Amino acid sequence: MAPPPKSKPCSKPFLPVSGCLKRSRSPFLLRPVNVMHRKSTGYLFVLPALLVLGLLIAYPIAYTGLLSVTDNQGNYVGLENFRTILAARATPTAFFNTLWWVAGSIIFQVILGVLTAILLNQNFRGRAIVRSVTLIPWVVPGIVAATTWAWMLHTEFGIINYMLTAPGIIDEPVGWLTNGSTVMPVMIAINVWKMFPFVAIMVLAGLQSIPNDLYEAARIDGASFWEEVWYVMLPQVRPVIIAVTLLLVIWALNHITIIYAITRGGPANRTLITPIQIFRTAFESVQFNQAAALSVMFFAVAITVVFIYIRTTAANAGASK
Amino acid sequence: MKTRSIKIGFVGAVSALALSTGMAFAGEVVWWTPNFNEARARELVAKFQETHPDITVNLQVTTTDGLPQRVLTALQSGAAPDIIDVQHGWVNGYAQNNLVIPLDDVLQDREDYVPAALDYVTLNDQLWGMPYRIESLAVIYNKGHFAEAGLDPEAPPQTWDELIAAAEALTQSGRSGFAITGGGEVGNTIFRSMPFMWMNGGGIISEDGTQVLVNSPETVAAVEFYTNFYKNGLSPSSTLENDGTANRRLFIAETVSMYQAGQFDVNSIKTENPNIDIGVMTIPHPEGKDTAAVLGGWSFVIPADAKNPDEAKILLGFLAEAENQGYLTDTFPARVSAMDMERFDDPILQVYKQMLPFGRPAPAHPNWVQISQAYFDGIQRILLGDEDVQTAMDGAAAEIEALL
Fold first, then answer.
1. Distance in Å, alpha carbon of B316 to nearest chain A alpha carbon
2. Structural element, H or E, at residue B177
3. pTM of the full predicted structure?
4. Crossing angle (nearest 10°) for helices B389-401 and B368-384
5. Gap from B385 CA to chain A (nearest CA, Å)
6. Labelling B91: which of A271, B152, B163, B195 has CA 20 to 30 A away?
7. Residues A270, A206: one domain?
8. Is B380's CB within 8 Å of A266's CB?
9. pLDDT per position as a tens digit, B350-387
């Protein structure tokens, strides 16, 4: 066993050798105030965080950009990958499916979430229990929820078809996941079910911070309950709804779990959305360069959507005040 | 001068380190085998060590889930085991990238092997893997349902027309006559529909991978035959979400009377529903033509980075002996002579045995995953009723053309 290294005094005190204790007085110690005020010192302190961020965010983005213009040998090929992936039959399908998926999910998540929040903001017996139960879909892991839904919706074994056919509501079992016109709405419904509790809980927090005076003033003016909702609650939680919607848009654009676990984008690409196409291209077909090209384009579209959203909502919020 | 000597010292230290990890395993053969082989592989290792006390075999058990990625990572990392069990279809990709070494000097009795198994692992006239296990699909049917439908349970359909007629007769009182797959992993539907194309002289792509065959008249006829089971209501309404496992569940639940399956399904049906009288038939073929099947199974490979390839070859030579190969395989051995062993005499296995000579390797193409996906999308468009067979296959052909 070697003894633990000790810090020993330097033989040459002015040589900056690591492992030895410097006896020379640091110039820093003499003028501490100046040092702390120097801008570079601040940068020094954020450097570790910046390095980590750079490694985890900037490097992958830059590398994706590089992959998108090279072939799998690393040779520069210009826009070839973009051309190939845009020519693929699945790409436009996936693009329109993504629009349909994001729009459908967001609208119903927000409406259902806000209505639930208003309901949970009322005083009634067992409110605490109802509030907790509402959260369940959101806390269930995505893959568990997706697999369970896949089983429930199965044409032959699914409980949903059983519940509909047994009392005679419908004659024939419905192929929820195999019928071209039902499969995407079903996916959206599952996503709404999964995420509306999040909207509800955020909006509920906003509702609880509304001062009681506003309600009293409204009631003195003879406002009905729905007028209270429309003129007091919604304007007050508007910033919350805007922020939550932005998050939902980003999450819906990035989404993979539910659809991939249930249909893998099928049947015949009816539920293929762009993130799943990127995933399939990269990890099933091992075409990382084409997947990178698609990611770059998708990133551009997503950032534009988010940018426009922030600009318009910020402008509206400014105008309404 | 000084920096140079430091550099040399550093390189020396690193190589000594590298050497020491290599040295530590001298004479040891690391063998990766899947969990379903474990018990039998241990027996064989014990037997091997009796005659080869100087070679230590370190058996490491893998699972099939995620195995392709794990093997590929090991092969590319430079720290590979000495022997790996892989599926036949993967070997070609390894050989193209020189990740494994040729085994022509190990595999002695070529003429004793099922030719299709050797074709699978051959590239540029060299053998890159040693097949030890082969299997194919056949059609499992419910003899009781045959009798109820007035069909002879001992004379199952032989031709396409007979299969359709039998499926029509069996489709009654909520049962489906013949279940096809149209969902799940792409491979399920490829393995079950491609043989029909082959029987008819078609295919997805030509064997040499230069021509698209998916919209040829022969292929279109076969695809039409396959998809019509669903279109005409002879396959369950859930076909578009069913893979091989789902079909087995439906068969066990007695709502499906015939479906294509491997020999493993026989045992799980026996355990889960002992009331079913199981029959097995060869996959029906067009009148006057031969049947066909995709040959599946497992081969041994020796990675290019194996630490002890010479000792590994000695072990492979031992495992290649007919008796040992017949002992190790879960299904059938790749050697014809090993097929005579008593354990392959089970009458229910005979039909699977008969299918083997008609087994062919799946095409090996670098873009095979995307090619099969394009074809599968076409099948789903037909099943959904979006497109007719010719249009769907023309669409798939256009996509596949770009991938060749």
1. 31
2. strand B176-179
3. 0.79
4. 160
5. 9
6. B195
7. yes
8. yes
9. 999 999 989 998 888 878 888 999 999 999 999 999 99
